[in-house]
Design goal:
- Helices cover about 20% and strands about 30% of the residues.
- The protein is built from seven helices and 26 strands.
- The longest helix has 17 residues, at about 1-20.
- The two termini are about 30 Å apart.
């Protein structure tokens, strides 16, 4: 139980200490085999593009990249991930949203709606001992209905910051493993329906459980791949599962108004007969997704020395008609355009040329995926975080078996990369 409390404390302390619009993340490092400033001699077909060309004619540009003989980029197995309905390209100010609920009653109503929606059919839902809360400044995990807590919460004598439900909190016992955690600012939610915990050795040493703690997984895949997975109930195509997951997230009572999309994920090996699909959902602005990385890895060796902030949400499906586990982080944000649309943007082909010239010519990287994403850079000196649209290239380095992720800013051609380890 102490470890549960410490995990939740860390989340709430991060949310409250950073304040609205502030967060800390990312690891900086030294450049490896790159040049940060690269002069590109432009190919006649590799010109700047206006926003319509960038967002509508990228297929032809992608084929041009695949047909170019790059000394260090192998495009033979590359996929292009481009969302539909892009509404424009803007630089953004990105700040954490403040609390969504003006008082405890509103937060309790929200929590009741979410927990009833998710767990009302579970026997554990009828046990009031499974409802807990945390409040400032004590940061003490307490039973919601213990003593006179509930009455004090309703009158405002106790200020709610965190509410949780679930028998799964007592991870050392044989219960149904349900878990729901959410914060009053709407920025964090974790859901576990508990159906996988019968396959997990449950001890008090691992209460803050994530599926990847127990199940092996494959390399990241894109939903554009023609791939089917054997789930508990039936063989399911990746794109069909992604569509269900997006619908689930976008219609759920815990959604704060964001539009989620699932462009990538991993396959989890549940047992000899069953696999699961672990998606990495992310929110969008004007149809362009904010960049995300898988929760288990971390970013290392940012080539430009800056700190970038990545969404680390995940959603697991083991049935075709249900999301078994869900963790959404950094989902309540205030986003404001700070730059008007430019007249021209870096095309995909020019971005690929920049990546090729910036990386070592001694390594032949496999291009896995190419996409258009928002990268969020951490603000300095109290300034808000900012986001800019980048071409993103996921690359596999066969020399060290690591994934390298390279980016080119669509406005100014600036380049950076990191190792995903």
């Amino acid at each position: 139980m102490k470890k549960i409390v410490s995990i939740i404390f860390s989340t709430i302390i991060l949310i409250n200490c950073t304040g609205c619009g502030k967060s800390k993340s990312g690891v900086s490092g030294e450049t490896i085999g790159t040049e940060n400033s690269v002069k590109i001699e432009r190919d006649p077909e590799s010109t700047d593009s206006n926003v319509k060309t960038v967002t509508e004619n990228y297929d032809a540009d992608f084929e041009l990249c695949k047909n170019t003989e790059y000394v260090n980029l192998d495009w033979s197995n590359a996929s292009l991930l481009m969302p539909d309905g892009i509404g424009g390209i803007y630089d953004l100010s990105v700040e954490k949203g403040c609390e969504l609920y003006s008082n405890n009653i509103e937060f309790l109503d929200y929590f009741d709606k979410v927990s009833t929606h998710l767990f009302s059919e579970y026997e554990s839902f009828n046990d009031k001992n499974n409802f807990r809360f945390i409040s400032q400044p004590e940061f003490v995990l307490s039973g919601l209905y213990e003593n006179d807590n509930y009455e004090r919460i309703k009158t405002g004598d106790i200020k709610l910051d965190f509410l949780g439900f679930g028998s799964g909190w007592d991870f050392s016992t044989d219960n149904d493993g349900t878990d729901l955690e959410c914060t009053s600012d709407g920025n964090y939610i974790k859901i576990n329906r508990g159906n996988l915990l019968s396959k997990v050795e449950r001890t008090v040493s691992n209460p803050g459980w994530f599926p990847t703690d127990s199940f092996s997984y494959s390399e990241t895949f894109s939903v554009s791949k023609s791939l089917s997975i054997k789930l508990v109930d039936k063989e399911t195509a990746i794109d069909e599962a992604a569509a269900y997951c997006e619908k689930y997230l976008n219609e759920a009572p815990f959604n704060t108004g964001d539009v989620f999309m699932t462009a990538s994920g991993r396959i989890l090996r549940i047992d000899d007969n069953t696999e699961g699909i672990l998606f990495y959902p992310t929110t969008t602005y004007n149809g362009i997704p904010f960049d995300s990385i898988n929760f288990e890895g971390r970013a290392s060796d940012f080539s430009d020395g800056n700190e970038y902030l990545f969404t680390s949400s995940q959603a697991l499906m083991v049935r075709s008609d249900e999301v078994e586990f869900c963790f959404l982080n950094d989902i309540n944000r205030v986003i404001t355009p700070i730059e008007k649309e430019a007249q021209s943007y870096v095309s995909l082909k020019l971005a690929a040329d920049i990546v090729s010239k910036s990386l070592s010519s001694e390594i032949k990287f496999d291009v896995l995926d190419t996409s258009l994403v928002y990268c969020v850079k951490q603000g300095v000196n109290g300034e808000p975080n900012t986001a800019a649209v980048h071409w993103k290239f996921e690359l596999f380095n066969p020399n060290d078996n690591w994934t390298y992720v390279a980016y080119v800013n669509v406005r100014d051609e600036s380049f950076f990369y990191f190792k995903h380890i």
